[in-house]
Amino acid sequence: MHKTLLASAALITALAAAGTPRAHAQQGGSPDPKAVQAGSYAVEPYHTQISFSLLHMGFSDFSGFFSQASGTLTLDPAHIDATKLDITLPINSVQTTVAKLDGELKSADWFDADKFPTAHFVSTKVVKTGAKTANITGDLTLHGVTHPVTIKARLIGSGINPLDKKETVGFEGNAVIMRSAFGVSRYVPLVGDSVTLHIAGAFERQS
To answer: Is Signal a UniProt keyword of this protein (predicted)?
Structure first.
């Protein structure tokens, strides 16, 4: 019995030791802003999405999201004010939990995806607000209308993606827009005019 316990302890120790390098190798991004690498980045579309929520008839906050983003980020941690962000979203990517509603949102009554197939944001000013935060102001074109929007952005992490081995940086962002200002005014004010956007953005360095 004593030998069996010793053998089991030895096996557990060996497995733990063997697992340590593997766990280290699979670590993802670091939240340390000093780890961010300067360069030109492209959107990593599989892990980038923009969710939206708005008040539905005074009863609940209803939400959905857009995906399949494309675009670029030019970033130098030493010169945050020189950051350039250019993002395009296909309107047909809109999804909720209701297939019928997805179709309605793409129709001429709402986003009119056939006439206005994309939403586009291009930054005009970036102001550092903290070690890991910045305000990104830019022009948002949606439904054929352009208005300035400010995104409150926060660094999530950066480093080498352990799967594709690419230098990656990720951010979250939040903004609020009035949909009627962009001509998407169906059922206002019964369905809320104020729309909260939450952005999960991942970017891979190209150079």
So the answer is: yes
